[in-house]
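cron nightly-structures :: item 1 of 1
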Amino acid sequence: MSFDSHAETPGRGIFITFEGGDGAGKTTHIRFLAQHLREQGREVVCLREPGGTPIGERLRDVVLDPACAEMSDRAELFVYEAARAQIVAEVIAPALERGAVVLCDRFCDSTVAYQAFGRGLPRAFVEQANEFSTQGLVPDRTILMTTGERAQVGLERATRHHEADRMELAGLEFHERVMEGFRSLAQSESDRVRIVVSADRKSETSRMIFSELSDLFPWMGDDEVCGEDLFAPLDRARHEGRPR
């Protein structure tokens, strides 16, 4: 089964992915976006990769476990693709077919950035593996979130409240290559991939995300609906210690 773009498939849901290095605040903004989509009457499915299914979560435990430090780069790629094949077949495809909005924290772009650019595996093969595992599914829009700083800053933010996982322990040079991969993807697929640099205020970051999605959801471009009051709670939440 393959999927065309949302514009060419009437009645199909909308698939939005969030990408970027660690510490850019993807989780916070996915939750905020989901909340307001639901308030507009949309069914929203929030997912993460790897994971999102019982099988995927077990594979996630393996691939991110620091105890699996000896995992080869090729094995790592196939673990990610196996988890992706499962989440597409079990969750994403059915949700899109019934018209839901699917928000996913990481998808194929992360595999290109981490396994092709970061690990140095052949990009053409990685892209073929992505296409096979997704049955040709491509996001309608990808929000690439970045801190606008070196990878070290994002890693420090990401591991502030937990021990580093196996990917976070891969080293600064690895993560710099990953960020190079994301920048390359954004440059080559600018219609789909939109860069959002995390601002000092979470409200400003969220406003930029909504702006990049306003062609898919016209109400996001309406100042009466998406005024300052809509985004203000994000800045109040900052005082509770949540990440940007």
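cron nightly-structures :: done
The chain is about 50% helix and 10% strand.
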